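Morning, I've got a small favour to ask if you have a moment. The fold is given in discrete form, as structure tokens running alongside the sequence. I'd be grateful if you could look everything over and explain what you see. No rush at all, and the record is pasted right below.
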Amino acid sequence: MIEAFQNINKAFESKVRLGIMAVLMVNEEADFNFLKEQLSLTDGNLASHTRALEELKYIECIKGFVGRKPRTVFRATKLGRDAFKSHIEALENFLKST
């Protein structure tokens, strides 16, 4: 049973980070406001969790402007996609083992 926990990634223990990655796995990219609305988060909460995922190189942040309005877009990196898939597989394996 302990082996089932080996591939569980601590970065995704937070439901917010799990949600961010889930959204980015099914969307090529998502902007800050879309993530905030979909996950019902405050600006600060989303910012701190996306920063943590950025530091792990699981997501990338692209900042730009649409007209004069700033726009922040996030994308999952290959490393992030692979880590998330491994995490989900580990959870599935754990559930099958119990």
